[in-house]
# Entry
Amino acid sequence: MSRIGNVNFVNKSLNQNNLTAKKKFGQNFLTDQNILKQIVAASRVTKEDAVIEIGGGLGALTEVLAINAGKVLTYEIDKDLVPILKNNLQAFGNVIILNEDILKVDIAKDIEQYLNDFKNIYVVANLPYYITTPIILKLLEADTRISRYVVMMQLEVADRICGKPKTKDYNALSVVVAYRAKATKVLKVPRTVFIPAPNVDSAVVCLDVYQEMPIKALNDEDFYKLLRISFMQRRKTFYNNLILGYDKEFVKKMLEDLRIKPSIRAEALELKDFVLLSDYITQNLAI
Ligand code: SAM
# Structure
């Protein structure tokens, strides 16, 4: 049970400190006990496990995590919130609060420094929506010890994460997620449970990172670069996107050799096609 995740506590914490939620940091504070409990339950975290939280805010989710996990490492970018967060969580000896930008930290180093004693490391967070995609791409591409993500995001991004080829929701994020993890949408969350209410509804997504990847590129960097270039401009053909990042003649030959039509759209290609292309690049493109 969280003391913090309710309307009165959130309003009181902000008022007493002369603060309002900052839009530029994507601050929408959760005020629903039930949703908080469901998020933490979906993570299946136990006292044996450590959790990384992105955006502690006022500590509503941090508190439920501290009760259920062995250790919680929470990042909060907003220096105005950090003292309040520390104060709200002072009863817990297992919470580390870092006033850092998640996009700038070396996550593998922090895991080693703060969470090394734990076998399982999960990310559980109500993400700042303006940077959901860069956060997920950064963490998945970093290839860390994190084995599960239970993260709240706007519904539209959740649909993209779970997006299948040939649908409007399918993009580079869908492919990176499919490459590294099994994605499941676990909960839809209405906008009314946040202060302030965002303009869109949200969803909680669970990503179970593959311990044995079903399909693996020869070189991950080549694979991630290919994805970024492939989906750079949705309206363009696959060929026209590829030549933004690779030599024209090389692209022509690659598509010919792999029997892929230049006029195809990136959305029509599946994970295995991107791995095939990436391996071709690794083997044939001189650096
Ligand atoms: N966990 C709280 C809750 O559920 O009520 C707050 C969630 S709020 C959607 C997102 C939080 O992420 C805010 O507290 C915001 O200040 C923080 N944040 C935004 N950008 C960040 C970044 N780059 N690194 C770390 N925290 C960030």
